[in-house]
Amino acid sequence: MKTKKIPLRKCVVTGERFEKKQLMRVVRTPEGIVIYDKTGKANGRGVYLSRSKEVIAKAKKTNVLKRHLEIEIPESIYEDLMKGLNDE
Fold it and tell me: Which residues have a Cβ under 8 Å from the Cβ of 73 and sit 6 or more positions away?
């Protein structure tokens, strides 16, 4: 029997590869709205971040999300990501 392939995704800050479930996803929707995607299934251009306060802080400092999504990132997205860490 074939084993099921586990999807790997790359953290845009650290460059490390992890299972999709271990990362947080931020999406630019087709309407141009930036959201924190808790389900990992939202429609649009997505980027992944490691689940760590240091990584989220570095993403904010270096504007890496802005570069990848090609849109201004609201402060509320970083707050939502921090809240998402506490929900785990």
Answer: 26, 34, 63, 65, 66
Pick the CATH number of 26-87 from 3.30.160.100, 2.30.110.10, 3.40.710.10, 3.30.1230.10: 3.30.1230.10
Confidence of residue 4 (pLDDT cuts 50, 70, 90): confident
Average pLDDT (11-39) is 95
Return the sign of the alpha-carbon dihedral for residues 41, 43, 8, 25. Answer: negative
Measured CA to CA, the distance from residue 38 to residue 29 in angstroms comes to 14
Q: Domain coordinates of the chain in residue numbers?
A: 26-87
